[in-house]
Write a structure and sequence with these properties.
39% of the residues lie in helices and 14% in strands. Strands 6-13-12-11-9-7-8 form a seven-stranded mixed beta sheet, sandwiched between helices. A hairpin with a 6-residue loop joins strand 15 and strand 16.
Length: 788
Amino acid sequence: MMGGTVLFALDEDPLGAGAAGGQLRRIREEVEAHGLEVRWARTGTDAGAVLRTEAGLAAAVVAWDLPPGRRSPARKDAEKDGDEPGGAAVLRRIGRRFTDLPVLLVMSDGADDDLERLPLWVAETVVGYVWPLEDTPAFIAGRITGAARAYRQSVLPPFFKALRRFDDAHEYSWHTPAHAGGVAFLKSPVGRAFFDHYGERLFRSDLSISVEELGSLYEHTGPIGEAERNAARIFGADRTYFVLHGNSTADRMVGHYCVAQDEIALVDRNCHKSVLHGLVLSGARPVYLVPTRNGYGLAGPLPPAEIGAASVAGRVARNPLTPGAVSPHAEYAVLTNSTYDGLCYDAIRVARELAPSAPRVHFDEAWFAYARFHPLYAGRYGMSVGPDTFDGPDRPTVFSTQSTHKLLAALSQSAMVHIKPSPRAPVEHERFNEAFMMHGTTSPLYPAIASLDVAAGMMDGPQGHWLVDEAVTEAIRFRQAVVRMGRRVAAAGDRPGWFFGAWQPPAVTDPATGERYDFADAPAELLRSHASCWQLEPGADWHGFPGLADGYCQLDPVKVTLTCPGIDATGAWAEWGIPARVLTAYLATRNIVVEKTDSYTTLILFSMGITKGKWGTLLDALMDFKALHDEDAPLDRVLPGLVDRYPRRYTGTTLRELCQSMHDHLRDADLVGLLDTAFQELPRPVVPPQWCYQRLIRRGTERVRLADAADRVAAAMVTVTPPGIPVLMPGESIGAADGPLLRYLGALESFDRRFPGFRSETHGVTVDDETGDYAIECVRQDEDIPAC
């Protein structure tokens, strides 16, 4: 039995009588006898539904004269293409959804000129033709099942295909891991429970590098090497490496390779902590580039002026760490693309701007692995920078690190490094592989490798665009639904007129016609097809970022930021508000977990796993929260767990009272403004990060309360979530007691004391459980800090 599904798109009743109907029914029975499931569709509408929902198709049998059906996508295709029958629209849709799916076209018996009246493109689309009454059902079914079998084998990418072949051989395991295909688990009650939960196939495919026929992750040979080369082709790289410890390891790997001891690295301050870890390992001297911020507290892009050659040279010259560097010229530049809130650069322009300042540019694309597969993101990802888009000797070598599991379909911790080298800064495989091996493992999890192989295979050809386009489309529908719900609430007149918003342009323009639409009323096709609808126009209030240029930065539609009343993108405060932390606490009680929460915004990711039912549930929860707020519901009804944990603080409080008191506190403390100042006025660097790390592991540091931390040198990074970006790096001066950093951290400390249960997640800060005091790791005062 082979498994899989075959679409029969035929205008025949599968239970009907007549010669043709009876013959087709017998063909169906023969196909099912070979282990295939048959999905019968009598119109283009029905066939479109199968093509949209059935990813396991192995073949299709389509009647050219299939009726289109009622206003289906197939019907629209037929209307667009003139008087073509429904079968033509189904063929076109198959071509957009699948790569090389075998299609047999059913022709009318007795029509001698059928082939001659078909458009020429049909012959390039189908693998053959069927006249139902001219051959036996068994023969026709054999053609269908043979094509399906070949297709099912061809869609498997290299490593996954080899792993399945090895698994099917049922070989005994004489190598590590010691569970020996799961057998060891069967000898213990708890082990048996573990085995039963995950199933035998997982353990049979958990293998050792001793299995030579599967290749080596370190040597990049065999099916593993073939899978990496296949991924490089799909993602547009010259070389791709599979990484099994997440994008954090990929970032450390690239940084460790690109910059050496006491060399200068240009680092986006809106960077992940793993980038800093790479600098600690390499001993580099960072010069930070400062991104913009808006009134919500969201981190924006590095503006064009910040990455220009003159600006970079000025920052390098003013940095206290530069005099001790090997050279005043940077060897490496790294920036986040897209940002956590979905802002993506014109990558080609960024590479051109940074080229005079660094020979190597690293785009940290942890959340952006899908960009190559949809025209909305054309030119906005690292691997779009190459000799075809940036010719000449100045082109830098480009690295892209992608957390494949985040927004593509791979197992957790699965990541890739893509490289497009330039003659200016060549990347020899043998040298880079030393960094790869230093951060890798000799005991890789083979199912994780297979998931990277499969994730790449899923994006190959038209199916990659189809998968991303579906996520984009659902995100657009949700965005428009939020705005429309807000309109309905305001127009109803029977309740307070507020609702949540979505961070996006309030209006868009059709570039073809010049027609202007409110965002909620714009055609979905316009929003999903034209990148101009998502670009951040210079000076626009809706985004609130200064210093941008036309086309430089674009909002990613699949990263949806919900906005709460209380403040806007320009930083203007309202008299009342709903802090986002309260909303996300409520959503958690509805089993809705968001990606990131800032003071008045919440980030929702529309991955390839999104469905209308999923986002419809979120929209319903937003309406329910509004109703509870408007009726001033008791907090023990809305957040009972919070009241149970902190009864003295919250007993007798209502939801509206909590929201208003938290809003008043945030506004009076101006926490968003303090955040902006802390990020714009960077601390003064004193020593390189690596020097601080060496003191940290040799007891050369001590924990110091904020009240006593003025002018001390930080020994560890401080990262506050929200917003999840470091505010203090090792080796930097904490600054004066009334300086921007301590004022901001002090405001956070005060907030945490006032609102237990809503504490910020602050890496690098310890909190005294009794007093609530913040403390951070500092270099001991008796340490001899070197002059840099």
